[in-house]
Amino acid sequence: MHLIAPFAGLRPAPGRAAELLAPPYDVMDADEARALVAGRPWSFLHLSRPEVDLSPDLDPYDPACYAQAVATLERMRSAGLLERDGRPCYYVYRLTRGPQVQTGLVLAASLAAYRAGRIRRHEVTLAAKEDDRVQQIAALNAQTGPAFLIHRRDPAIDDTLAAVAQGTPAIDTLAADGVRHTLWAVADQPTIDRLTAGFDAQERLYIADGHHRTSAAERIGAARQAANPQHTGAESYNRFLAVSFPGDELQVLAVNRLVRDLNGLDAAAFLRQVAERFRVVGSAVPVAPTQPGEFGLYLDGAWSRLTLDPERVPRHDPVARLDVRLLQDQLLTPILGLGDPRHDPRIDFVGGIRGLGGLVQPVDSGIMRVAFSLYPTPLADLIAVADLGETMPPKCTWFETKLADGMVSLVLD
């Protein structure tokens, strides 16, 4: 089986993309999703977050939500907003946000390669979130949210993408957040073959974002294979929807931390304990760390710059030396008493795109007690961890620019 394959995508009809495209379903809470769909009856969030059209008191994992998603998809198709290509295609997808431009390929990736570790993961998934996507895919009989993959730059791939992007796009729209989304369909067989061969030559692909979507697709694929006595391997359930970008075009931002209390300490006692492990220097301006091992701390209206004693950094462990682990192991757990960050209700996370203001406001309002800014995890560290078959702590990376949901969906025939 080839590492990737073209597919007959379900995508916005000509001229309708601006009405449909929406941010990824998992970068907002329910209240934010409801605000985003106001006045937008065809936003893809009606499908990816169907609870926005139901009672706010309803559990978003209730079966009624998945039934609502099915009804929304049928309504979009009946109204002519979504159309399916008549033959398998690849799709070149370009995102432009200010000076940042990233150009990737929408594809159907091999689940066999994912199981074998040729498509590498770096995160542990949460059961509830994974179950949610399993129910969503099963109900819709389609994968509507792509995983975000990374490939190593190769002229056979990236020069081909650039050449395709010289043509007339099928979609070219500016989203409300200022991001330009542009899509070209690739239907000619020589170009399809060139791209397929280029990816087959890749030693590995890496999941940057979308671990829950990928794991859910794998579970659906395994169940359908087991239930199909005529299974051949060519069925669409053997693949998952993804967009792959060259790593050197990506921007990785930090995911910062907020903590609700000081674990019974007053501010002075807390800072004394921090100073036993870090060099603490007050700052008149917000602290955006400039190197690994450096952190910003916001407490009681004031910023400090923390620098970890180098003796405390385990240089030969690619997971333990990550800044998110250093902060957890050297401060959040021993001083603030935090447990597993995947489950501890005292911690919250703020994606880097929201800036340092996203840390200041919750602390100043009293919702949170203390905030920490981090240096972004280098992409090379992510790849090193994935190559070893290890997993990173939760909320290590925030990739910008985000893919739009609704651009292309994979129907499971």
Question: What does it look like?
Answer:
The structure is a single chain. By secondary structure, this protein is an alpha+beta fold. The model has no long low-confidence stretch (mean pLDDT 96). The longest helix has 17 residues, at 211-227. The chain is built from 13 helices and 21 strands. It folds into two domains: 4-252 and 400-411, no CATH class; 255-375, Conserved hypothetical protein from pyrococcus furiosus pfu- 392566-001, domain 2, CATH 3.30.1760. Helix 6 crosses helix 9.
Coarse structural class: alpha+beta
Give the overall form. globular
Strand percentage: 15-25%
Beta-strand segment tally: 21
Quickly count the helices: 13
Characterize the biggest β-sheet.
Answer: 9 strands, mixed
Give the C-alpha Rg. 22 Å
Rounded mean pLDDT is 96
User: Helix content range of the residues, please?
Assistant: 25-40%
Task: Write out key terms for the chains shown.
alpha+beta; six-stranded antiparallel sheet; 24% strand
Task: Provide a compact summary of the structure.
With 413 residues, the chain is of the alpha+beta class. The chain has 13 helices and 21 strands. It has helices spanning 17-20, 30-37, 45-48, 63-78, 111-116, 127-140, 155-164, 189-200, 211-227, 267-275, 323-332, 357-364, 379-387; strands spanning 4-5, 10-12, 82-84, 90-97, 100-110, 119-120, 142-143, 147-151, 171-174, 180-186, 205-209, 239-246, 251-253, 255-259, 278-283, 294-299, 302-308, 347-351, 370-373, 398-400, 410-411.
